[in-house]
Design goal:
Bound molecules: zinc ion
CATH topology of the largest domain: Chaperone, DNAj Protein, Chain A
Largest sheet: 4 strands, mixed
Helix content: 25-40%
Order of helices and strands: HHHHHHEHEEEEEEEEHEEEEHH
Number of domains: 4
Strand content: 15-25%
Distance between the termini: 64 Å
CATH superfamily of the largest domain: Heat shock protein DnaJ, cysteine-rich domain
Structural class: alpha+beta
Strand order of the largest sheet: 8-9-13-12
Mean pLDDT: 83
Shape: elongated
Radius of gyration: 34 Å
Low-confidence stretches: 95-112
CATH class of the largest domain: Mainly Beta
Length: 374
Amino acid sequence: MSEKRDYYEVLGVTKSADDSELKKAFRSMARKFHPDKNDSPDAESKFKEIQEAYAVLSDSQKRANYDRFGHNSPGGSPFGAGGFQGFNINLDDILGGDFFSNIFGGGSRRSTKRQGNDILVRHSVSLKSVLDGTEEEITLDLPHHCSDCNGTGAKDGKVSDCTECDGQGRVRIRQQVGPFVQDAVRDCPQCQGSGMSSAARCKKCAGDGLDTSEETLRFNVPKGASDGTRLRMRSKGQPGPFGKGTSGDLFIELRIEEHAWFERNGMDLIMSIPIGFSDLALGTSITISHFDGKDLTIKIPAGSNSGDTTIISGRGLPSKRGFGRGDVVVLLKLYMPKKFDKATKKSLKELRDSLDGGDDIIDRIIDDAEDRRS
Ligand SMILES: [Zn+2]
Ligand SMILES: [Zn+2]
């Protein structure tokens, strides 16, 4: 069996820590190691370790037992034969602060503030939008409170309490886990946590208090935005349940469309162009259009090689900080036709004799290497 760490050490508190210190320590550790937030491979086991330590230390009976016997309690693991299995905790619950009442069963009433869910949508924009920071328009079906019941989910807006849970929405279930009796708090099965009697549900929304309607939203693409940037619109998400609490947020995730010839590398725009042998040898100038509105003139110096790059500075994408632009980087590629007609072939052969001067290719490679060394 692998060595188990001391629960106090796991949470980074002293043995005399009180409930609020424990709670604070747990919250900050859980945030740090929640697998949704932390990519490291041991985050999940760390997170479970933190949960286990908190589950024991926050329970006065379990804590007393642990203080006395450590991990070798005579009754075995306080979590039964299988040991601690972990809770499935949503990161939002920890960040939102409802976590302790939800998981550890502080008697939460229906009136407890609960936040509506966040909504994520994806929206594609062009590289030109990233350059200009254009205003975008997006039309979505967004949830809002049902107009018939003002979001309460109750017929005529009149709420009558569920008889099963007395309108609390939660029920307390007492269960035996190993040698311990544990209290668990669950959503009431009768009313699914709404606290309302089902007979009085609003017909329009079937009792969830929500309705959707089309809404058009406008927003600006931040200049220099990268693929996957998320823009937050506060309170445009799902409204709080049962007509109470705050609305969630709407997140718009930007997808940057691919361009026909530019590829993006941070602030730089990269492209490759095929150039014929004679243009590489003699040099030339090529003009292509650019989405910044001004043509791009690419000067290819005489004696260029396939694989050389030429840089046109200041014609890339803007920086996120709002000043300066990246570069356009052009990669030159030799364009070699698959077939030549007879006359061209003849002149190529003549050209080869005059260019190569009968040298052996190996000699040229050696000369080249020596040139570079000196
Ligand atoms: Zn309704
Ligand atoms: Zn109920």
